[in-house]
Amino acid sequence: MALVFGPDEFTVGADTNIDAYPAAGADYAYNVGSGSNLTVNAANDRVQRGVAGSFVARLIDAAAPTGNQEVILDGDNINLAEASAIPMTRAATGGTDDLYFTDMNTGIANEVQLYRDDAGTSVLLANGDRGLSGAATRRMRLRAVGSGTAISLETQIDDTRPLTFSDTAANRKTSGPPGLGILDTATFVDNLSVDDLAATGFQARCGTLTVGTGAAGTTYAAVALGFQPKVLILWWTKRNGNVNAAADADVSSGFGVAVTTTDRRAIAWQDDHAATTMATDSYHSDAACVATLTIAGAVDGLADLSSLDVDGFTLVVDDAFATAISVNYLALGGADLTNMATGVFNEPGATGNHTEGALGFTPDFVMFFSTGIGAAAPGAKVHATPMIGAATSSTQRGVTAISSEDAAADSDTYRYSLSSECIAVLEAATGTPDYREDFVSFGSGTFTLNCIERTAGARRVHYLALAGGAYQVGNLLTKTDGTDIAVTGLANRPRAVFFASHCAAEDTANTSVAQAKFSMGAFDSQSAIDPARNRVARCTKHEDASTAADTGDAMRFDAVYANILVTTAAIDALMDIKSVESTGFTCVMDDVETAASFVWYVAFGDEPAAGAAVSAPMRTRQMALTGAGL
Fold first, then answer.
1. Separation between Cα atoms, residue 533 and residue 558, nearest integer Å
2. pLDDT at 309 over 80
């Protein structure tokens, strides 16, 4: 990951042909066109078309990568068929019309289009509806990864869901530089940048994979990650789609992890919308990494890890899903990530310290998840009582839990989240936390927890343990205004951050509040050009004290945190990632809160250099002023 070219702002004193720009030595050469077909315009400082037609030019600057690459530019789009600026990759160095490109055609339903040009013949590889319409200047991104039997492609327009394709055709483009072009009409290109996607010590990529309704054995692949993942963190609802959406609906949500085809786990829970007698259930599995439930609590669909691929991963259906679902993922890898494993343990028989794990390594980070089921996986129970927590030390931990009581006449729902525990399971009828753990320390192949509170349930808690890299658990507050939310003091530049929240103020220990909400999101900073662009978020809700169950969810491709109204599921607040710094990151509210909410996060980064100081993450200034400590 390195910015190797740009941003090229195309600043000139006089109109200049693209193949003579800049004057000190041309950075571009035509693949389609010549002379003044594409000119750098002095009045507007951008690339424009000189005559009618479609023209493309490749980078010939020495820094231009010919292997893995990502190009980002600002491109004008006119609401006409095939009238768009285009980013391109893998252009033929001999100047022929052989390359990949993305264009916009807002005159049709599937307006984002990914093409391969074969000696001037354009082949449509993939297209998709992203809800874009009208003429506008848009941020356009195209990446190409791989040089062997499959070339993985990913394109994105503005903040929409990326479109991906794996090209295995004989005419696939295995090498060549990136570039730019203009199709058919008076559009323009500005601010071109190129990333060589060079490997970092710790690598991460977040995104969304649709798992369809195919029969058992059907596979679904995520591509164009740019590295082979070693760990998958997954979360989902039953909602599927390519655009931001939120609505009241039956909720079947879940969280899963996978490190090998035989080492993976998942939890799932469901709430039946509009039921006059509440119908809620939970499930867990150690034989799948994705699961959904019917409103009766039966398994609706199961997906397992089929493979961790050279530049992605593949899931395989074990039990067919009744409807397609969009699964959010955070894929982790890189040389610094050395060890990973999942496991499970039971709620201890007494309070106090207890040691868990039989790992072959000393972990640096552990993530916990449970639905409060005591029986061995796979299995289910009534009541929805999921929790997710994480810890890196006795001072860096966080947990979020919700509950929704089954068979209640009126809905009975609660939420709980704080920074001084790593495990919390709520009792369904009252919402009171009745199993709580704090983190003590890591040991050789183990971790030690302090059981603060327990019952006789012996409930099972699943975990993901990782070693190698830098992991820091911290927290922040969302805001009621649009000022920056700055997180500083991390060990290094985060490669990814995972966020979790119950969309409310941090709770007092052992005291939950009404209304079940659960937000999960993430971003990765693998793009050196635009590290804040790749992010996803989900939020679910179940209104408390409603005579008919009022449940719903939201799916976002432009935020890392979402808060929805308990009454309608309409968006109440959104937090986005604004920038990524060398020792932190900055968030901002795209839709401000009515009251600030507590959000805990896990930051993933490169292994610190030998002898480098690693500080605890600092909370934002607004939190320091409240006197709340980590």
1. 8
2. yes
